Prior knowledge:
By secondary structure, the chain is an alpha+beta fold. The chain is built from 3 helices and 8 strands; from the N terminus they run βββαβββββαα. A hairpin with a 2-residue loop joins strand 1 (about 5-15) and strand 2. The longest helix has 13 residues, at about 50-60.
Amino acid sequence: MPKQSAGILLYRRVGQEVEVLLVHPGGPFWARKDAGVWSMPKGEYSDEDGLEAAKREFREELGVDTTYANYQALGEAKLKSGKIISAWAVEGDLDVSKIKSNTFEMEWPPRSGSRQEFPEIDKAEWFDLPTAKDKLNPAQVVFLEELAKQLELDIPKAPQQDSLF
C-alpha cells in the first residue's frame, strides 16, 4: 500500500482577491530555498480518516486547532514516489505571527555526532493565487487549480520580475 498524506489548504478573501496559506519547511536543507518548496500544512497518516489526519497535521504544524466548517474536497495527487496526497480546502483566517510548529531532531551538521532540533515549518505566509502557484511544490499545484475551479476563479500568471540579464 502506498504511503498517504493529507493536508488542508486554508484560503481567505481579501477584497476581490483570494489568498492561500502556505508553509515553508523548517530545517537546514530548506533554509535558502523558496520557489517550489512551499506546501499546504500536511502529513502522513495510515489508520485514520484522511480529513481527520489533515486536521491533526494542521494543528501540529501550526499550533492552531482547526475550528473551521465546510471543508471542500480537492481530490488526490500521486507523487513520483508513489505517495498519495489528499487535500481539503476551507475558508478561514489565521494570524501567521501566532503559529507554533512542532519540531524534529536530526544530526546537524552531517556526520558531526551533534543533534539539533528544528521546527517542522519555519514560517507560514498568505499568498495570492499567482504567487502561490510559483511558491508551491509542483506536485501540489493541482490542489490550487482545483480550488480556483471550485471558486470559479482564474489564476493569472505572476508578474515577471525585471531582470538585468
